[in-house]
## 1
Amino acid sequence: MGSPPHTFPATERYEYVRTLGQGGMGMVFEVLDREYGHHVALKTVLAHSSASAELLAREFRARRVTHPNLIRPLDLFIEGDQMFFTMELLEAADLARWTWSGDPVDVLSTLGMGETIPDPRQAKAGAGASQAAAGQWRGTALSSERIRGLADICCDLVSALDALHQAGLVHRDVKPSNILVTAQGRPVLADFGLAASYRRLPGQPAPMANVAGTPGYIAPELFAGVLGPPGDFYALGATLVHAMTGAPPPTDVDLQAWLAPRCPVAALVELIVELLDPNPAGRPDAEASFARLAAIAGDPHRRFRRASGQFSHGRGASMEEPFVGRADELGVLDGAARDAAAGSGAAVVEVRGPSGIGKTALVNAWLEGLADRDGRRLLVLRGDCHLHERMAFGGFDNAISDLRDHLVDEDELRLRHEGGLASVGELFVQLRALGWADELEEGGEAPLDDKARRIAAFTALGAVLAEVAAQRRLIVWIDDVQWLDGDSDSLLEQLLGPGVVPGALFVLTSRGEASGEAEPAWRASAAPRRVIELGPFSERETAALAARHGVELDEVHRLTGGLPVFVRMLARGGEVAGELGVPAAQADPLSALIRRSIAELDGPSQRLLDVLVIGTGPMARRVATGAAQTPSAGVALRALEDLGLIRYAQADASERLAVFHDRIRAARLEQLGVDARRELHGRLADSYADASPHAVELLAHHSRHAGRREAALGYTLAAAERAEGALAFATAGDYWAQALELGDAAAHDERAGWAEKLGDARVNEGRSEAAAQAYERAAALILEGLGEAPAEDSEAAQALARLRSQATREYLHCGRVRDGHRLLDELLSDHGLGLPTALSRAMARTLWTRTRLMLRGAPLATESAQLSPRARARLDILWAGSTGLAHLNFALADFLLVRHVDAALACGASHDAFRGLCVEATAEATIGGPLFGPRADRLLAAAGDWLERAQASDYERGWYAVSKATREYFRCDWPRLVEHAERADAHFERHRVLRGSGVSWERSVNDLYWLSALALMGEVEALGERHEQAYAEARERGDALAMHNCRSGHPSLLWLYRGQPEQARRELALALEPQRWCSAEALGQPWPEGVFSTPDLHNLLAQSQLALYEGGRAREAYVKLHEAWPHVGRAMLLSMRFLGLELRYLAARVKLAAAAELRREGPPTGIPDWPKGLEARALERAARADLRKLARSREPCALPFARSVEAALPGTKAARRSVSLADAVEGFGALRMGKHADAARWWRGERVPSMDERLARALVPEPASG
């Protein structure tokens, strides 16, 4: 082994063996691939430039067409000065040499532009070969036997050329030195340096063709710029001449006469003459050439079949798939594209159907048609999912690579997103090639809050895609979405959000199989969605597709079930009816065919197939061959390819193997027993450990199924840590759950730690119920390990309190209120506290504690006292309970709040007391009046004074601002509320960046009041912007209550302001536990169950507003209001400032609208719960009673509410109505409730541009007529 020349690339992976040859543009070396342990050929360019890189990449990609007679590419490297690719190394002779001698020699490949490598061992070839190579013919013609062998070889070459042509490529340099024949007689077409696309690709202009090739083999039409398959068949004719005579055909002779003495087979002479016809239309095509060559080879019945290629063509060049039918489905795809173009966000089309039904062919055919019809440039980002594969954002992995490749070459794209691109580069390593993570490396500080980093990355990626979609028609296609991982699901849901990627169409192909798990989050998005249920072909369509594939079977539809993939498999296998060997009554002939094909495999091929069958998806070739434990991997691979049992999947420029279809996998798995499967999993675990030791996810999977529990546990823990670090919360949670299952013999404290991490992952994922169960399990494991209750102030006691508090919070967030109350009661009892057994007792004890606080005062020390662990836990429990229940059970939350403030003041915990006093101030502000109203102001003033004395943190300043915003809500001062909310958000953001997580719940409370104020003010643009951000953050952290707050209540006015009642209805359908209080058992449930909560209030508001907006549904709204009213009173909501008045205003509006409907249409027939005998006059009397209560109030909102109702009451005189509406306009205006004021103006007869009758009806009752 000599020293490598200076042109050999510096690489640790490849070890130089020898130089195979050099041309004008590059060199070819034999190298040892240390990673795979075998010898390969390495080709590099001599001149390093962008043009060289482009040529090298083009040649490599052209080689990715899969066919047994095309040389196989391996890896491409274009990084800086490293520009090379590798390919299989063959022991073979070129065609001319093989024709005369049949002796294989090392591969010597043309390096490009017609320059050939001289053969250093030419003397070793026979005399005939030397004469042929030298272009000399001494009158010795090939024997008929040799000609038959040459024709047989050329049949395979025609098939290989046809595969290239079906992929839209032409070779442009077919000649003997580029055709290699192995010792086994397998011809291989090599050197794709001049290969070019001759067919217009979807969305792209037709490429310009340059004249290229080797003189003597270039078809005449190429000089005129006409590029196409006939040019390669011209070169094939010249190649046949060269193989027989030693030189390409002369141009100045009668070719037929000249060939006659040189070729004794007249049929071959005739074929060559036709292949060399100057008119491309006169040359035989692939099928005709194949048939004539097969006859010359002595096998006239040999069938020409186009190789059907890969089931899912994936990421390389692909062979053209025949496509028939599906007109209706193509129309649905067109409609989805129109949805995307017309909408303010992305649109979705889901193509469902079983494996092999033709989903991929349908989408491919539609994309080609779309590019032909559409003037906009098309960009398709393709992702795919795999069963059992656990990879962070695995569903988007390939799509992100596509995006990277697009952005690298996109000149007109100018991205400007401050601070966002670094986070995208941090999450998706493929994009780091664009320099998107540089700002972090240059000294910027990454936020410590993992969830916030992920939200930022999602948001920035959406902005990038939106900019791409503004310039191109963007299609994001994700295949096999039924296996979409949880993290990709979260990303997809984000990208489908309103206004995130306007104009983009997401095409999601899936098998439509029920997984038994919860509905994916992306389906809850409001994006326009169409669904295509793809069924089998009809008998006629199946026959048409079979004919296109060359399959001639009378019962092809019955045999294939109308599934296109099985038609293709029959064609690939060359099976005809008489060859199947399957009885006509056979229930599953294809499985029988598959099993028979597998049984006929040799040992190495069968072992390799079994490895791929047991794998989780596409597998690196080295891993597969290592697990198969066979040295003849190349032969095994070719056998599996020829039978159509495997496919090649390209991912990240590395070749991966996969089973061609799940039907093959299923048929083989039926034959593999439990012991055989366990052995295969063990072999794969060993192979991954040797070849890819960092693939801990796959090592965990195969070790577990091999029964190696200890090894599986170690890999599973490593995989969980990796997923956690990648912010892949769903994947991390799955691994922590597996660790708990595998590690049942581990120490209790270890398992408790895993369970807590499982809870943390489920919280971040948005699965609150699963998180609560995980925290409870962690607490139970700690107790099991101790064997007895821990000492009060021990670390174990603190951990138990923390875990059970977290479980309580998550149960309350997900609506499992009873479980939340159960845990809270246990926690309080453990700390000498307890839940009151009745509402009256809760109110009495709250009043007593609040009175004691008022008498004692609330002095706040500047510094907090040192607390015992038990005292600390007690305060945390009371705080968690009061805040967790704040929007679920006001009375119970109030009870826990005053206990928290009392305890904090008693033990000198000034920071806890500060927070509690801020909330207490808001609670007293809801009561108002001459006593509690001023006291709330004094408490907030004292809290503000403490902030300055204690040099408080951003968190505490943010909490103080939230409390002031809440107070303004109940005082109806919406502009000031917005000021405080903005200030709170800024403080919380600074705290998040500096300290990490810990402000999600606080921000959701702030958003609730902020959004409500903007909605009541009618600030539509500001409301929309804030709503989008708040909803995205709530969705990302999985806060069901916060998402509900965005979907209902005052914020739901956003869609009515925009004239989108359908959107309001969709969002309301997703709201948290709608109408829980309407159950028949609600009032009879023991307290604190069955309480009318804030979500119930928000649902009532949103439902009533929507019903009034749409018209004709007021009677339906009244029934819901009538059912809810006892619960409203029981929850003491009518006694709260603003809320009580707003509820009475809502009740009066609904009653008056329902009365008007009764007068017009009579009693409803479709509402079974309508109160028997209820008449319009009774509803109007009830509305008048509401008016009297509104009129007695001195709150700022009472006047416009009362005047609006007065104007709508029948019997109110016209003059009085006019005055009342004028007062309402003035009152709403004073409160800055602009849309309400506009509605009152509308009813006065003014034409307000931003108002219409539907919106006016939803905000202000329609005035009575007469």
## 2
Amino acid sequence: MTDPVVLPLCVNLVAAGITAGTAAGADKAKDIIRRRTHSEDLEHVATEFSVSLQEAIEEQDARSETKELANVAVNWEDVIEELADLPDETTDSPGRARVREQMPFIFNTGDTEEDAVRQVADAIAAANGFDLTNTPELRENLIDAVSQAYQSAIAEFQHQIAGTDLADVFQQELQLDLVDRLEDVQHQLSTLQEVNERLLEQPARNDGFRQLSTAYFERVPVSPERSWRTTFTLADVAAGIPARRCGRECDTAAEELRELLLESADRVVVGRAGAGKSTLCKQVAVDWYRDEATGPVFYRDSDQAQSHFQHRESLRAAIDRATGHVLVVVEDVVRPSANAALRLVEEYDTDSQVSFLLDAREEDLERDPGAQRLDVSRDRRHREILDNIEPYPLPKISETDVARTVDAFEEVTDRSVSESPTKLLETIQSEFIEGIGSYLLLSFHLPLGDSAIDRSDTSTTGLEAHVRSRYETLMNPGSDDALRDLSGFDSDLLADVGAMVALLSASKIGIHRELVHALGYVHGHDREVHEEIAAIQHELEGWFLFESDQEGQTPAYSMHPLWSTLYLRCLARDHSEKKSPSILTEKSEKHAGHALDSLFALFGDVEHRESLAAQVGSSAKLEELLSEPDETAREYVHSVFDLVTEWPVLAPLVGTVETARYELPENCSKETWRWVVRKRGVAHKGRGAYKKSQTEFKEHLQFARRKENRQGEAASLNNLGLVAKKLGENDDAREYHEESLAITRELGDRQGEAASLNNLGLVAGALGELDDAREYYEESLAITRELGDRQGEAASLGNLGLVARALGELDDAREYHEESLAITRELGDRQGEAVSLNNLGLVARALGEYEDAREYHEESLAITRELGDRQGEATSLNNLGVVAKKLGENDDAREYYEESLAITRELGDRQGEATSLGNLGLVARALGEYDAREYHEESLAIARDLGDREGEASVLEDLGTTLIVEGNPDDADEYLERSLDLAQEIGIPRQAALSCGMVAAVKLASGDVETAREERETALSSLREMGLLPDELRILRHHIRVERNHGDVDQARTLCQQAHNRIDSVDLPLSHHRERLENVCPGLADDR
């Protein structure tokens, strides 16, 4: 016999379904059903619901691998108490049946069938002690079971009331067509528990995959306003919120990409973060799902996935069970959390009924030819698979795209955008931010946000201004520029909360309230501290944090991960600008350190975890930490340090083995610990902090040797060699790379061997051993060709071109770079193409073909800007500055160098910053301006700060030369002697020869003529041996000037003639050098 308590529940469910979406009150519908329907008919409905639910639960459990439903018992007494919140005193009272019989309507006014299903599913779970916030898959299984039972109950109700006048009563009293309403309920419930949703098994769903379905879209709410500040979900895309971007050939990129997938092979969408890759993928997926001619869509959204993709067999089973042309979409496929999908791409390569649409950031597809990774075989296989997938580079944002975006924004938000599309496009094109795409930049020029902040007359628009204003508000809460008055909070705690939520968002761990409250580890687990943390979070809502309401989504808040990354960048930059007595002992940034320490301590400090639980109550997130502590700790650590290596500017937040303000989780494996050390080294190397990088790589080398991990040892040695070269320690660099080479040969690692040979070539080139460098590059080239590594081949050819140019073999250099350019274009490697174009510009410059050089560098600049490659952009700007200076266009040269300087400072590229400052010093010297010395001194300070001894030697020579030009040879001597000593000490023959030549000029000016002329000849001879004619002419020009100024016109004339003879001795168009020579020796040379 059915439990009597089910009957009033079924009456409530039927009433909710009939009145859903209408103006009629469900309580009135319930009253009509009770008045006009026989009790035994309602009992039939209740019985059908109860029996159907039990059967549905059993079916769902049989279909699921986790068997989470096996222990579900439907105790209707407990379920009703959860739903109706009956008071405890009613539970055992004699009047219980009467209370139950007269139970008020248990669903809220306006609830839909779906709302009712959710509430019943939640009540069943609560009655069984399940926490659905941490098990979204269990929640969906229960929802499907309740939906099936609800549908059966409605069908039984239709059967029982057939032939009665109940429909007339509903029409008269509520103006509802009962037949139509019941059919609509059936349709809605059928949609809610779509059978196709179950193609995906539990493991694939746990790994973040979702199957697109009507049920899925109806369950997941849309966010027409918030999504412009966070990210567009599949539901947002299905609702048409984001605009459709233009395609290359078609009207929209989604249409174009969908046709490509239907007609041919897989595709990988390539672009910058924030450029709209995932939105485009979602649009293609939604279109595919809506097309009745295609099959199902399985989608993995990297922002929603809470774990790594590990269960390939589960996704494979869903693909194999599907009918029709299947589409599998995987975002951020290069990342370790998703790259397992590449093996499935390979498996289904010949299956025309399975297509893969992937997306990847440009920087993730880049490869440093000199770098080595620890898991070489797996990385190489993934690279090979990726190389066989046709890329779809995102079309550059156009004015039409901007106009469509504005139209879409205005339509869904009912707000007006005052700026024209033309003006908006100009604005976003002028505000490049490293790693950030144009669509995200555009979204922060749209009038959306807190009315008291983002729409004020004084507020500035733009992503960077948006981030900075909020950062300053949290870091300086009492300042006049603060957006809100947060001065009532503890300043350290406020700054720590800002760092914690940004870190959780940027790393994609998720902004869970209890994880933010983990800051009690640093600030104390007192009730007052946790109340203040809660108050801070509440105060940040709507303008800094956005409440999350996504289906199955457990984080309490959401922020755009890139926005959060820029917030952390502010933290890192401000920390870097604070001077420390020693770069090696400088501690990592305090607030990020507090966040990391508090987060990681959850895995090892029982008291911390228990104190936190006592303050925040029962928590699914804390239970997850306990249920799988080792795997969760590993994922958290990997999420944080993958972020830092992706954005090296964040390296100051994590420090080194010696300077970190946090401890890694106690349960971290030694392998993870070593991985973190290597990642920190890579990050510090990426931002030019070579001494810190060296500290980490040396530590990692010791780990590898203790474990007898030869592959890890080779990788560490190679990294140490690259850093040593940057520090000017070329002998050490050579030793490291030779050791690495020996190991790779011992292991038979041909790819690693090619990398080591390439790096040895770089060291030989720096030491002026150009023939040796050529030999290394040729060996590396042979291996890359043997392996079919076209990208490695292009890199080796480029390096051979650099050697040929240094040796004055300019025709050969051009040929190498043109061959390299052809390969990069064949591969669609736009970044490699930009590098080859820059190299061709250097050759043209050496040939005196300055207009051609300018054209090459401008083409390279255009590509780097299109790709958002800020580092490449800075290089191209610097090269354009050199060309302009050669042509005497000093004002233009200064403008190029200043642009380059701004970018290097934005990137935290200290070495690039030093180069740009040095070039600005050369322009100032050419113009006779007194700030030339200041530029060089600032560049020198950076080189010394970085431990860049090679850069230091170069800048010291520039400073000395500047002082000679300014007429201060005595002051110049100290700098030049130090430059010479340093160049000889670290083994840089070119720099040693240049410094020697300039020291000789100082001695000549001071009257030590004999010694000066001997040293001059030594310097010129060395430069001739290295084939460095431009440097040779430079030394000659300085000495001609000094000899003439001291009255020895004959010697000046001899040197002038010598310079002309050297120019005539080579078959090169060196008219520019001849012109510069004439400027210092008019009337000295013979008639020519």
## 3
Amino acid sequence: MAQTDMDSGEDGGGGGEPEVIAKTSVLGGFTESTEIRALISSLPVVHENIVTLESAIERFLVIMDRYQEQPHLLDPHLEWMLNLLLELIRSEQSPPLLVHLGFKFLYIISKVRGYKIFMQLFPHEVADLQPVLDLLCRQDPRDPETWETRYMLLLWLQTREPIMDRILAVAKSYLMVTDKSRDAASVLVSKFVTRPDVKLKRLGDFLDWSLTTISQASDQTMGGTVILDGALQSLAQLFKHGKRDDFLQYAPVVLQCLAQCHVAESSQATLRKLGVKLVQRLGLTFLKPRLQLLGGLKDKETIVRWSAAKGIGRVTGRLPRELADEVVGSVLDCFSFQETDNAWHGGCLALAELGRRGLLVPSRLPDVVPLILKALVYDEKRGACSVGSNVRDAACYVCWAFARAYEPTELKPFVTQIACALVITAVFDRNINCRRAASVSDHSGTFPYGIDIVVAADYFAVGNLNNCYLSISVYIASFPEYTRPMIDHLVAMKINHWDGVIRQLATKALHNLTPQAPDYMATTVMPQLLPIALGIDLHSRHGAILASAEISHALYKLANQNNRPVTELISSDCVSDQYVVRPQQIFVVVVVSCLCRGFGGELMRPAVCSLIENMSLSKMPFKDDPVITGWQWLIDDTLKSLHLISPGPRDGIKEAAVSALAALCEQYYQPQPGMADPQMQEVLVSQYIAGLKSTEVLTRCGSALALGSLPRFMIHGKLHQILSGLQQSCSQREVCFTEARRDAAKAMAQVCVTAGVSAQGGSDSVVCEGNVSAVYRALLDCMTDYTLDSRGDVGAWVREAAMTSLMEVTLCVVGTAPQLLSPGLVNGMMCSLAQQSAEKIDRYRAHAGSVFVRLLHSNNPAVPHIPHREELLAIFPTEGAEGLNWNAPSQAFPHITQLLRLPQYQYHTLLGLTVSVGGLTESTVRFSSQSLFDHLMLIQQDAAALGQFSEALLHVFRDNLRNDRVSIPFLKMLDQMLARACFDTFTTDQDHQFCVDLLSLCKEEIKKSKDTQKLRSAIAVFCGLIQFQGEVRKKVLFQLLLLLCHPFPVIRKTTASQVYEMLLTYDDVIDPDVMDDVMTSLSDTNWSENNHLCKSS
């Protein structure tokens, strides 16, 4: 709760929170004890190797960190872990590195379990004192690598009978170091100096030393800050653990020193925190520094406010009741809207500390509770975000403290208010820490329906914001005490929130909550929302329009369940005269005021589109109303103006407009069921088909999706015209129209599914024999779109849309008229999907694989004419297909390469594998090449299969000559194949045709090329081809000699290097008599410059 913000270092609620997935796993015990025992036992062996040492430390950290939230599970195992590590440390055979390693592991354990509990297990024998002290004295206080050793030794030493002066000297030296040993040294000093035998002789001296150190140090330097930190820590610890009678005489001197040194004005938050901590300890000694503590509540740093709040709690506990009540009154002064969020946060922390200690009298609750309720919703906008999450978190801490400090009868008058406020915070707060703090502040024994709420909105469940707004809220609102407060909070605080995500979730939550209080929504909430929808504040206007739309649709659903019109449900006197005209008025004000233009338009356009959609779905009686023309104008204007909208919200606006168009057509352009308004049908279809030829790519996108969203009665009689326009849009391969091709491919499937399938139907109304081939040709053509621009492989968007569309159209056709699918269409579709399933981009490979398997396993009815269906089912069995992770190359490629055995799929699979094996991504290259070579090893003894594969390989190369997208990866893949001796069978034949054709294609590929990447890949292939016998070897050598004389120095150097390695591998290539001369020329010649070989050529 309040502690959360302190730990995270956040002082506001401005940042967005990550979306958190709720987890409910709780550890049941220390299950890794065997592994930990083995790790500790292996330290004498692994510490000599840096790699194994770091691996052991990392594993130990990972295991221990799992128990940060449940450290008590380690308790039964702490003793044997400590004994094993101390045995290593005490051993005379242990080198210093192993000793430091032992202390490092001890520190990790103490960090997880806490040093107070862990140190109780350390041995306290007198025999250990001298070795521990000697080892500590031998440490270098400034060695950053061994601070864990010093830290643990200091903590160990504080548990023993001291050797007074030596311990004090060592402790003082460690109070000035920069690492965590300084904290341990302050603990040591506090326990050591307050001992009865030490305080008589050394307390005064140590305080003099500390005050002198504070007076002489400066917080303007790093060293001075460290010294001040150590001295202030030690004093704070001394006044915490010492007796009041012992320190009373020194308190005025210490307070005077703090005032003279101006610690409270330091620029270092840590020093100010320690100053406040010391002042509160002094306040427990004499009750004078109250004003300083109250001022600390408003400090800009959380750690200072937290320390001041605890100090006020401790000091107030020593005061009489009357004076304590005055302190409470002073704390309440922090809760003013003239104060900053820091003051509110500090005030909440102080109230929680006072309440936790029982210092807040019940008579003060009427004054305190309203302030806490305000703090639970405190959210001050600052620029583009807001602050206040720490205030709300601290307010939850106050509620938690009150529930434990007061009797239920004392809290009874305020229980409902507090319960509603906490539930609202737990469900609707934007900050996850606040939601979790509120969820654990609910108390099943005090609050109404507490047990049910705690179960539904537990710590883990409220971690997911969508789950809170859309699911948990509905459950809690079913309890009548919480229904209206939750609705009122959403209307008052959330539909006008600065974060658009919160506004949208709030409106959806209002939709879901409407069945819980329909009359309240219709008679109270709607009259509040409609004026706000016409207001001047952008966020309020946006949220109110969305909320009006969602509540209207929810009311329609309720009315429809009872076979009543929605106007009857909301026709009470308070809204009937206003509500029916308000949607029109909203639209007119938005358009006339130009609120749909500029930055505000990016919010208002989707909001009004949502209003149009929900009004249409709610069957509002607006037929023949002029507002319908206005609504249609706004939708059309939005689809035409997409290029004027910034990229972020563009897709959302486009989707909102398309959804609104579909709902508007369904409700208002259908005079009779199944019949379209002829005029509107002609206008809309012609308009959107014309938009497919626009010079603006986004207008094309909007027009395509608009055509795809039209209802069936709007398509009837216009199908041929629509499909022709979409097919033409898909076929234009200009780079700038990639998004248009993608959306046209999506729309084509939507149109086909909407129109339906009939084998004997007309091609202008349904998908039939006359148009199904054209649809498939267009979509299969989209599968070959590999357009590249500055954004990368943008053609992948088109291919992904085409794959989805092929699946949807195929399943639709198969379900009604499977005879329309010819073997050629199915073969082309499955081969194209196989190729995409073998390509390099994980996302699109996964999509293609899932579509491929979906079509293969479809059996209601089955897709006809799938080539090699039985073999495919053996490769992708039904029971194992769902578990196959196509995104993971290690899982996908072993399955894909099995398609190389099937003749129909071999060419396309190999084409897809080419760009994966010859690609750049390490994991993709590794697993794809390994799977490919595993297949090649299996067919080495099958001459027919190897011959068929080699023909397919040459076919791929021949079809993609000068196509750098394929040819360069192909050369890289070919180099790997030759290096792995995949074609050893051909090396025994003189001038094998495969080798001759391959050499010819390689020469053609690099002819006149200036692409160094391609040339270097070709060099590697030529060096691999040298293994073949006959004239082909001479031709390969000739090509390499030409490349040795290439104009580019990098090509000459690469050729010389690889030829040198090749000659070492194949010693029969050159006559042994001249081998030494050749090798010397290759190695000694400076290939970066023009040389005699180049000149002679």
